[in-house]
């Protein structure tokens, strides 16, 4: 029985909320004049880049702002009652019981030393005083609701025995144990693979309907908000800048920041040569350095001096649309349908000679069953199984797949951080598969460089940016003396579009996007010919992603670099890459040009991947495929086809072939390769997953 029966007004009403954090030196305003309303059963998306105050709003609702945080203005009402005026006891009763929150990192919410069942049962036993039997029954019901296999076994497991996706489902189950009226989800799927994300999002939507729960869904992913929410609120630098229904904001946006955000994400139809993404100029303002008037003013194409920076700007109602508001003085004067001022169109680079060739590469790891004490049988983890492909000069080859598919292992072998178990890696027809990095000559090391996922971990915190780049130049033998190397370092900063004065800055003084540029400058210090980019933009904000990907493209055009782009984000892959290689459990299951891989026929796994990617475009229709089950372990892979345990096409293949034999690689027209037992007729009958809906 839902707790909404006795209340029929808005579940959550936030009015003119201002939250500040107080340090010894100053008050830092984190959220200013923020208002939003969530009606019963409604899902509200809160969208914006990191640092805009989304999570602070959520913590304000939970009344959990820590020692330094305070609400300095406005009200937060839950079911008509002001949360700020409640006693600690009343708040304790509401938290977890009426308002539940799901965090980004599932393990932060689970006790590693307690079995799942006990953790779930605690919720109703503490909040509602129900008996142990009743609590167990409820726990079993919610674990079944969140579609976990073998619920009884799961209740007896410890958190570490579950995969990331399963842990996140348990956290959702825990939040739903007391059937809350409001569920706050703070980036609940960021740490998960796209296919798992799709299943979790589907689950959250279904459960929201089943329990009539209202939701506040915090995300930086516009596509995800489109798929889960009814309304959304766009935040920038502590303020709500636009709010309305999904259709209104996506199709009739009325704020320059919302428009700029959409122009910097790769939607279907974006093309790195003909229609490059438009990055938002400038940087996000720090909380204590916000400009006068409109916070977005310094980065806005429509800025008018003396008007946009003269005083506070209130939210204004947009005529004729459902509760649609914008914080812009000029929204009625802007032609929102004007075509984008295109970025500079660049000529398509033609791939040159083959630079890198992999031939039946295998990488196995031996693990003893009882590694800690050295006893037990040896088990083999087959991280890479017979990888074969070629990469040419000036080409971008994307390598796609979920975590555990062997993408990073192959990158380590290529870099020389691991050596191959079998097969060949040829760099200019010279075998490097069994030469570890310490035995490689300087030229080979300089030729193959890597840009990592997390720019924070790859820079030395106690060394200036310039010194770190010069250190790389020294290792690669570039320049005869310190002065020459300093000059080259300054040129590399120019190359990655960082001001030269950054040479004397420490990494902590740089934003995430700026750190990633330093990483790229370092990778190109020795004129790298092959750059392995391992998820190079997934840790960055949307607007920064566009700038960093364009930078990589520009450098590639200038230096004829071969780019191996490892990613699970298929929208960026579609925008950037010339060819795509799809991996699953160590195997290459599909390989072809970007156009071939994104249109049928597909490998069944590619089809599911395409269906899982959230696209921030209301005119797109997607086929709906949710993968059941988790990725099998590479230590104990299934027999036959690696994908057969999750494949929806398996019944179409006669004679149980999928369970018995690993399929051979089939080559379709124009060199498109697919590793699958399906017949040519089945492939020919496949329909596109992503369609643009007819107007």
List the helices and strands and how they pair.
Elements: E1 12-22, E2 27-38, E3 43-47, H1 54-61, E4 69-78, E5 81-82, H2 88-94, E6 99-102, H3 116-128, H4 132-145, H5 151-155, H6 164-176, E7 182-186, H7 194-211, E8 214-219, H8 222-228, E9 231-236, E10 239-245, H9 246-251, H10 256-263, E11 316-317, E12 325-326, E13 354-370, E14 375-392, E15 396-400, H11 407-415, E16 422-427, E17 430-431, H12 442-447, E18 448-451, H13 465-475, H14 482-495, H15 512-523, E19 530-534, H16 542-559, E20 562-567, H17 570-576, E21 579-584, E22 587-593, H18 594-597, H19 604-612, E23 620-622, H20 657-660, E24 665-667, E25 673-675, H21 680-684, E26 690-692
Parallel strand pairs: 3-8, 3-9, 6-7, 7-8, 15-20, 15-21, 18-19, 19-20
Antiparallel strand pairs: 1-2, 1-4, 4-5, 9-10, 10-12, 11-12, 13-14, 13-16, 16-17, 21-22, 22-25, 23-26, 24-25
Helix pairs in contact: 3-4, 4-6, 6-7, 7-19, 13-14, 13-15, 14-15, 15-16
